[in-house]
Amino acid sequence: MNSPVIRFLNIFALLLALGIFVGHRPALAEPVKVTDLLGREVTLKAPAKRIVLAQARQLNALGLIHPDPISLIIGWGSDYQRQNADAYALYRAKFPTIDVVPIVGDGATPDGLSLEATIALSPDLVVLSRSIAGTHQGAGDIFEKFDAVGIPVVVVDFFLEPLRDTVPSLRILGQLLGREAAAEEYIHFYEDHRQRLASRLGSSPRLSVFMHAHAGGFDCCLSPGKGTFDDFINAAGGRNIAADLIPGATRQISLEQLITHDPEIYIATGGTHLIASGGLVLGLNISRETAEHSFAALLGQPSINVLSAIKNGRAHGLWHLFNDTPMHIIAIEALAKWIHPELFSDVDPQAALQEISERFSAIPLHGTFWIDTPGGKAPPH
């Protein structure tokens, strides 16, 4: 029977499904407001869906808080494929559209970013690092130029002062992308692991550490000064001997200086970019055999095998690209085990890395990211 009551109910159900009743209309997106690392207020009409990364390496962070970060990126710098080709290949395998993302700059300097190419893409957000944002702020700066065409710009950073900037940067990105819960989940993981290390260190002695950057790929010895790896060494309970020798972020020190200071612990950094030069090879999809072979060759060089750290089995290798990713907490755990093995015997950086791979990362994180002198004090693998 097609009664009036039944007809009314059918019409009501149809109107309800179409959202015609005010109470059931989809909620309009709320504006998003954040304060970036430079203290600038950034407002979006809604969470960003079309973003430009002036440095493509910021994908390292996006891939920890979004399951498909490539779907958000409409333009970026050319640095990622150059700097981290192995990760790029993994992203390509999972997200093939990565190859058609337009290049808008070199990802290296403020002048390397093409404003014209970026503006032509009509992004709803441009993401800058501190180094790309530059030190000049005022008339005619990069912010004023984007403001003039109504494109919001935010500054985040994971490189220059990572222990200070990582958590606020993740929180800023989470809010701007509508991924607050995912960002807070990783922040909780990060802060929990960091606090565990800090709470145990107390007044423990600061052992001297030398970090040999890009080991084997250049003449001895390139090393980090202040910031980045220096921050990691300090957080792990060590003292970076190069911090007093190098006025800036990175510089070459002489072999004579290294031998004179004779650090208690020697840390080499490496990556797949050193394969051709015969340097230390570590990173994504690198086998332990490959890493061990390259590390043995490095430690056998007459220029450094006179160091006490090498003779005493306190030489280690670390993936260099931990230097620009929120995953650097893994590097700090490995360093802490090497510097203070008695304090951190139960800390397992490999388990932490696996948890990041399974819980957070958009790509699998398999490979060899640290290595030890045979018979030395090693993090568990």
The total tally of domains equals 2
Secondary-structure content class: alpha/beta
Catalogue the unreliable spans: 14-26, 377-381
CA-based gyration radius: 24 Å
CATH architecture of the largest domain: 3-Layer(aba) Sandwich
Which fold does the CATH topology of the largest domain refer to? Rossmann fold
- Secondary structure tally: strands: 16
Global shape: globular
Strand content: 15-25%
Query: Mind summarizing the main beta sheet?
Result: 5 strands, parallel
CATH class designation of the largest domain: Alpha Beta
Full CATH superfamily name of the largest domain: Nitrogenase molybdenum iron protein domain
Terminal CA distance: 73 Å
Mean pLDDT reading? 90
Question: Could you explain how this protein is built, in words?
Answer:
- The structure is a single chain.
- The protein is α/β, with parallel strands linked by helices.
- It has two domains: 32-178, Rossmann fold (3-Layer(aba) Sandwich), CATH 3.40.50; 207-372, Nitrogenase molybdenum iron protein domain (Rossmann fold, 3-Layer(aba) Sandwich).
- It is 38% helix and 15% strand.
- The protein has a five-stranded parallel β-sheet with strand order 5-4-3-6-7.
- Residues 14-26 and 377-381 have low confidence and may be disordered.
Kindly list the characteristics that best describe this protein.
381 residues, 15 helices, Rossmann fold, five-stranded mixed sheet, globular, five-stranded parallel sheet, 2 domains, disordered C terminus, alpha/beta
